[in-house]
Amino acid sequence: MALDWAGGLAVGGDSGSLLGKGDPAKSLLLQVVRHEEPDMKMPKGGPKLSPEAIADFEKWVTSTLAVVQCTVVRSTVVE
């Protein structure tokens, strides 16, 4: 996964998009933070985050997704 450009968050890595490709409900990051993925949990080896911390991640993913989509579209048009 390349995180040195905004689109890297949307494109993701071997496991897919970190942000959910336009749908926060499909965000791999949120699934991992919520412990919905049996093989991947965050924090690794630690207890599940509080509902408040998970809500913060949900807000971050939603707001970041909007910025990333605009940036990717803009950079595609500019290039």
Helicity range = 40-55%
Order of helices and strands: HHH
Summed over residues and divided by their number, the pLDDT gives a mean of 73
| Global geometry | globular
Largest sheet: none
Q: Structural class, from helix and strand content? A: mainly alpha
Q: Roughly how many Å is the radius of gyration?
A: 13 Å
Distance between the termini: 21 Å
Assembly status? single chain
Number of helices: 3
Quantity of strands, as a count: 0
- List the uncertain runs: 72-79
Strand coverage percent: under 5%
What report would you give on this structure?
With 79 residues, the protein is mainly alpha-helical. Helices cover 49% and strands 0% of the residues. It has 3 helices and no strands. The relative contact order is 0.18.
